[in-house]
Amino acid sequence: MTIWLQAKDGHGKWHSVAEGAKVVKSGGGSSRRANVRKRCQGTGEVSWRSVIDVDIIGVSDSPEKAVTKTVSVHCGAGL
After folding, report:
1. Please, are residues 68 and 47 in contact by the beta-carbon 8 Å criterion?
2. What is the pTM of this model?
3. Confidence of residue 46 (pLDDT cuts 50, 70, 90)
4. Interatomic CA distance for residues 71 and 79, integer angstroms
5. Cα–Cα dist 11/8, whole Å
6. Cα dihedral sign for 8, 50, 72, 43?
7. How many Å apart are CA 19 and CA 50, to the nearest integer?
8. Could you read off the pLDDT of 8-38 as tens digits, one per residue?
9. Helix/strand/coil (H, E, C) string of the chain?
10. Rounded to whole angstroms, how far apart are CA atoms 68 and 60?
């Protein structure tokens, strides 16, 4: 599982600012997920989203990725 944290720049383009990856087994629980973090900088409002790709080992899959709902936060992205 790979997850990218993206921030939108002033021109409306998304940029990956952090990446996290983890091999996880099936089932729930906080230890069975990948996470990614980026420290906020500045005071401006920034739009954030995550892009998630899950690959099952040994199984062919499509190139589709899940994209989370955009969230605006009052901090700078340092782009």
Report:
1. no
2. 0.76
3. confident
4. 17
5. 8
6. negative
7. 10
8. 988 999 999 999 888 877 766 666 677 788 8
9. CEEEEEEECCCCCEEEEEEEECCCCCCCCCCCCCCCCCCCEEEEEEEEEEEEECCCCCCCCCCCCEECCCEEEEEECCC
10. 23
